[in-house]
Amino acid sequence: MEANQILQSDILDILFEGKNKSYGAYDLRKTYHKRIETALIAVFLLILAAMVSSFIVSKFRKEHVAPMITVTGTTLHSLPKDEPKRIPLPKPTPPAHIATVKYNTPIVVKDLLVIDPPADTKQLEKARIDISNSFGKDDIGIVNPPEDVIGTNVAEKPISKKSKEDSLFTAVEIEASFPGGAKAWQLYIQRAITSQLDEFTDKDYGTCVVQFIVDKTGKVSNVTATNMRGTKLAEIAVNTIRKGPDWTPAIQNGRYVTAMRLQPVTLRNPNE
Fold it and tell me: What are residue 193's phi and psi, to 5 degrees?
């Protein structure tokens, strides 16, 4: 292609210069924009046709919808409740009277002196032993129910007693314990004793047993020393427990209970 023709030629003609244009690629690129425009127009026409047909169908349905039927003047009445039918209970048939024979206390005497002989074996087989003789049906071994059962039909009011859980236990399955366990208790009591160790004399050393009550919530009360009263060790032990934290309550039958606790506090004399 000459230089003056390049400026006037299309870009496709330049690209396909000297190539086989009838192969198909040239025509596809040449008509690309036209085909895109045709496809867009076709899609637009399809959408428009769908919208028009939808509008026509909806209008046709509105015109042919059956009119709504309105019922007026209707009064609603509540249906009567189905009362349960009472089936009359059959009247109890009074028990048949059973023949009885009088019971006589056996007395060992001569036959001539017997005034009221006891019933023989045949009589006892068909009659029931009672305080007198009477006629009736043969006894077949079935005990008749009591004829008149009289009662108040009122349960007896329970006797108000103090609950076992609220009572004071002296022996329990798991005793009350200091929060944190035995090691925490040792550190706690050691600090209290060490802070006043200079005031100890020979009589203040030993083992003091402190008695107190731990309730269901862990509160401590009634703290007293059972021995070594008047000593410095007893004073520190009692005050330490009384002013200390709440304890873990005792457990009985899987529940917290109020229980007595005995806590020994031992301090050995370093000079011995």
Answer: -75, -40
Backbone angles phi and psi of 259, in degrees to 5: -145, 155
Mean pLDDT of the chain: 75
pLDDT in tens, 52-83: 888 888 777 655 544 443 434 444 444 565 66
Residue 18 domain-assigned? Answer: yes
pLDDT at 136: 72
**Residue 31: per-residue pLDDT:** 75
DSSP-assigned beta bridge partners for residue 266: 207
194 dihedral zone (left: phi>0; alpha: psi -120 to 50; beta): alpha
Classify residue 118 as exposed, middle or buried by CB count within 10 Å of its CB (0-12, 13-18, 19+): middle
Does 29 fall in a domain? yes
Structure tokens at 270: 């370093």
Specify the 3-state DSSP secondary structure of 271: coil
DSSP 8-state class, residue 248: B
Q: What is the DSSP string of 8-23?
A: TS-HHHHHTTTS-GGG
Full-model pTM: 0.41
- Within this chain, do residues 195 and 227 fall inside the same structural domain, yes or no? yes
Residue 233 near residue 267 (C-beta atoms within 8 A): yes
pLDDT of residue 177: 93
Q: Are 168 and 258 found together in one domain? A: yes
Residue 220 to residue 200: CA distance in whole angstroms: 26
Task: For residue 14, count CB atoms less than 10 angstroms from its CB and return exposed for 0-12, middle for 13-18, buried for 19 or more.
Answer: exposed
> pLDDT per residue over 13-26, tens digit each?
666 666 666 666 76
d(CA 15, CA 252): 103
Name the residue range of residue 260's domain. Answer: 164-267
Q: Work out the average pLDDT over 27-50.
A: 84
Structural domain total, the chain: 3
